[in-house]
Amino acid sequence: MKIATMINYTGGFMEAVEEIQALEKAGLHTAWVPEAYGFDAPSLMGFLAAKTSSVRIASGILPIYTRTPALLAMTAAGVDALSGGRAMLGLGASGPQVIEGFHGIKYDAPVTRIREVIEICRKVWKRERLVYEGKKYQIPLVEGGTGLGKPLKMITHPVRDDIPITIAALGQKSVEQTAELADGWLPVFFHPDKVEQQWGDALAAGRSRRDPDRAPLEVFAGGGVGIGEGLEKLRDRGRDGIALYVGGMGAKKKNFYNDVFKSYGFEKEAEEIQDLYLSGKKREAAAAVPASFLEETTLIGPKSFVREALARYRDAGVTSLNISLVGNTLEERLKTLDGLSELIAGG
């Protein structure tokens, strides 16, 4: 099991990169660079490529609506070249609140669009002349265009002609497609004890159609990590983030994260969190996150607890533990990473 983490640059770009450099030396395998509706991810990915030597640099995630498929392919190829073949293209649909509210682009057919983006990217990286007739993307453009478009292939030669693509997916059809086509899956609110009931059928259906020449699907999931006695209170650090997604990342009747939370058996709690958050009571919404969910999805506690949690994530098919390290200083977080690596190595 490899170790991945999402970069937190709220304290500044330089400080975030310095931390990744230290974590890289301690064994970090993948660094996710977030975008959402903050700074763009590729800028920091390029900077990170120059400042690191071994860590995989992944966009976490690029919303497919904000760039053309060809530009997504060009961006991944550029970071891959700068990093010497260490890029991973993390893609997702985001949601209508961000895509229409921030970017002013219509949110439609996310599953179809992701399939076509994956297929187009792989054609671009192989330097094929780009001709594509999809339901959402037609390249070259004919209808509605000047008629002057011509099939082109990438001028530069990518370092790799098959850059890994990971999809952030939650819906059944999206997860099924991810298991069929993608190289990795990045689910939010992954519960190791409920993955089979939630996505088992979708994963099985997708894998049954997977190209046998493509490597097995990587699964990135995890939570906060803290190893030691008396640390259980630190699980509460995840409350604000959960409340934001379950309560505020979407409208009252359309929130993908809220739907997943409900599917785990937290129907009443999901409703309460959303009602509180949307009414401006963010602190109360965070307090309404059930302690049982925090206990079941984090890796914070005595060494025996973390060891058992690791086994549950491994049994659930997780190949890369996606974590946030608790600790007030970099030294504390590095110590936690060392302890986690030892537990992983010990099986």
Would you write up a description of this structure?
Strands 1-2-3-5-8-9-10-13 form an 8-stranded parallel barrel, surrounded by 5 helices. Strands 6-7 form a two-stranded antiparallel sheet. The longest helix has 16 residues. The N and C termini lie close together (9 Å). 45% of the residues lie in helices and 14% in strands. With 347 residues, it is of the alpha/beta class.
Distance between the termini: 9 Å
Total helix count?
14
Specify the helix fraction band.
40-55%
Order of helices and strands: EHEHEEHEHHEEEHEHEEHHHHHEHEH
Summing up helix and strand content along with how strands pair, one would put the structural category as alpha/beta
Rg (C-alpha, Å): 20 Å
Large-scale geometry: globular
Runs with pLDDT <50, length 5+?
A: none
User: What is the strand tally?
Assistant: 13
Strand content: 5-15%
What does the main sheet amount to? 8 strands, parallel, barrel
Within the largest sheet, what's the order of strands? Answer: 1-2-3-5-8-9-10-13
Instruction: Output mean pLDDT.
Output: 96
